[in-house]
UniProtKB/TrEMBL annotation:
This is BED-type domain-containing protein. Keywords: Metal-binding, Zinc, Zinc-finger. The keyword Membrane does not apply. It comes from Varanus komodoensis (Komodo dragon). PANTHER family: DNA REPLICATION-RELATED ELEMENT FACTOR, ISOFORM A, SI:DKEYP-117B8.4. GO terms for cellular component: nucleus. It holds the Pfam family zf-BED. GO terms for biological process: regulation of transcription by RNA polymerase II.
Length: 596
């Protein structure tokens, strides 16, 4: 039975107040109870796609309330819904229709009324037809969302009926009612055991992948998030997570132990590094070729060490870690050090006690070669002035603002000044390139700011020219470094061709430059030749890097060697392979030992 619109006379409609509306609605409810046979049907209304919000998070109280399934009216309705709402609303935005008092039925906590004939579910946004009966609305909650009468009966009776008056505090409160700690107020579908296990594993993976503390599960915000997404899921305690984390570590460790057994020999890398609080850490890593002839790199351990014990206990620490993973001393081909200082401090001990040969990282040796080239006096003066300019713009806000405005005028806002660091020579070329790109803007700002001219000294013309000539040489070294960093080139077979390529390329570049740049290039070439023994033919024949390059099909022509040396190397490798297949001992154990 439907209530006619002329149920009240015109005069009665005008005299109806907010209190009388409630009495009138009580009459409607009583009439609805007597008309139990009239059951409204659930209708799916086709609505156009909702417009995409420009912001990724709620901006207003109404938007926030919709996120937490409150009864606020949605602000981003489709055209059809908007026309329906405008049709049932007055010109002042107030609704002219009379509707059931929400305090009489708890179902209205999950629906928003759209005019006289439609309601919208706040959970799934489905629109249902409404004929002054909440039966269909209640069945929809039970069938689609498993929200039953027990939940509806437990909701508070003092909730505000008009959603426009819902405050942000009430919105957050309703969200908290959906968390596991307030589960008595939110009866959702129980989380199945397989799904709970998956969520638990994902939480654990989030902790060790992103380095979160175990106490993150006790954070209020994280608990609200998990409670909203999966209300019946109970987060584990930090103690439980710690136990799970150790179990995961032991499982992965067992797999790694079996994987390491597939390698005939390994290279152990010991790398010392500093964290933000200036704490020293040691990372022990292995590189090897597995049973499927694939290059593998595995981290065995990362532990904090004391600076006074970092060098003296290196051998014992390496031996302890290798033993823990079931590796013997004989499986170690050599030990790779990240600095020449560590190599000199530990190589003799590792050789005498454990029989391990030490080798320095090629990237660090290349850094030492470049550093020797940049120690030319004129270059150091130019780089010092360049650092002072960059430091001035980093510390002076007015100068930075003026520089940014000039960069906007020439459409170079993406360019930024870079300060170099002594430990990374690549930052030196980045600093020089940034200064050269912003040269005219920097000079203009320094001229406009009298304070800048007194605080910082601008580069002279010959210094600008020096940096301009230095950049191509440094860029060649940077390209070579990028080549060695590529996955297909980080094996030792790519090292010697790359080093010879650097020596040849920068030598050609120095022919057309000033005397200062020639000195820089000569210093770099001298360091490269000395550290890798390029001019020593006997040392080249004994080098595993040269043998690896010969066996690599990409470099089998060995163009960086003389014809006579290539012929001698070819004979030596044939002899070695012949003895190997005849089950005889290798030619010499020193042949396979890298030179330090």
């Amino acid at each position: 039975m439907f209530l006619p619109l002329d149920f009240l006379t015109k005069n009665e409609m005008e005299d109806v107040s907010s209190k009388r509306v409630s009495e009138f609605l009580q009459k409607c409810v009583k009439l609805e109870d007597h008309e139990g046979d009239a059951q409204p049907k659930e209708e799916i209304i086709e609505v156009q796609t909702l417009p995409v919000l420009t912001s990724s998070y709620p901006q207003t109280v109404q938007e926030i309330s919709m996120v937490f399934n409150t009864c606020a009216m949605p602000a981003n309705l489709g055209p059809c819904t908007r026309r329906r709402r405008e049709k049932s609303s007055g010109h002042d935005g107030t609704s002219t229709s009379l509707y059931v008092d929400r305090r009489k039925s708890k179902v209205w906590n999950y629906y928003t009324k759209l005019g006289d004939a439609y309601v919208e579910c706040n959970v799934c946004k489905k629109q249902l037809s409404f004929h002054n009966s909440t039966t269909t609305m209640r069945e929809h909650l039970v069938r689609k969302h498993s929200i039953r009468d027990t939940l509806l009966s437990q909701l508070k009776d003092d909730q505000v009926s008009d959603p426009d008056y819902v405050a942000q505090e009430n919105v957050i409160k309703r969200a908290r009612q959906m968390t596991p700690e307030n589960n008595s107020q939110y009866h959702a579908v129980p989380c199945t055991e397989p799904r709970a296990d998956v969520i638990l594993e994902l939480v654990l993976e989030m902790i060790f992948r992103d380095l979160h503390p175990l106490s993150v599960v006790k954070d209020k915000g994280f608990g609200l998030l998990i409670g909203y997404l999966e209300p019946s899921f109970i987060l584990p305690s930090p103690v439980q997570l710690s136990s799970m984390l150790w179990h995961r570590y032991n499982v992965v460790k067992q797999h790694l132990e079996h994987y390491l057994q597939t390698a005939q020999s390994i290279v152990v890398c010991a790398e010392f590094w500093l964290s933000q609080p200036s704490q020293t850490y040691l990372t022990i890593m292995t590189n090897f070729i597995d049973g499927e002839w694939r290059r593998a790199r595995c981290i065995l351990e990362t532990q904090q060490v004391h600076e006074n014990k970092a060098e003296s206990s290196l051998g014992d620490r390496l031996y302890s870690v290798l033993t823990d993973f079931g590796l013997s001393n004989k499986s170690v081909f050599c030990v790779m050090h990240d600095s020449l200082q560590d190599l000199e401090a530990n190589s003799s001990q590792l050789k005498c006690i454990y029989g391990w040969t030490s080798l320095c990282c090629a990237a660090h040796l290349l850094h030492l070669c470049v550093k020797a080239g940049l120690e030319v006096e004129q270059v150091q003066e130019a780089l010092g002035t360049a650092r002072s300019i960059v430091c001035y713009f980093q510390q002076d806000a007015k100068a930075t603002c003026s520089l940014n405005s000039k960069l906007e005028a020439i459409n170079k806002t993406k360019l930024k000044l870079v300060m170099d660091t002594g430990a990374r020579w690549i930052t030196t070329i980045e600093m020089c390139e940034s200064l050269l790109d912003l040269k005219w803007a920097i000079m203009s700002v320094l001229e406009e700011h009298p304070k800048g001219a007194t605080v910082v000294q601008n580069l002279a013309d010959h210094q600008w020219k020096l940096l301009q000539d230095l950049v191509p040489v440094m860029r060649t070294l940077k390209i070579a470094t990028s080549f060695l960093r590529e996955e297909q080139n980080f094996s030792i077979s790519s090292l010697m061709p790359c080093i010879h390529g650097i020596v040849t390329a920068i030598g050609q570049q120095a022919e057309e430059t000033s005397g200062v740049i020639k000195t820089v290039v000569n210093n770099i070439r001298s360091e490269l030749t000395q550290r890798w023994g390029i001019l020593d033919e006997e040392k080249l024949l004994e080098s595993p890097a040269v043998v690896a390059s010969f066996l690599d099909p990409r470099f089998k022509e060995m163009r960086f060697l003389s014809p006579s040396l290539r012929s001698e190397l070819h004979k030596k490798i044939k002899s070695m392979l012949s003895q190997f297949f005849n089950h005889q001992s290798p030619v010499s154990t020193q042949f396979w030992v890298p030179n330090s």
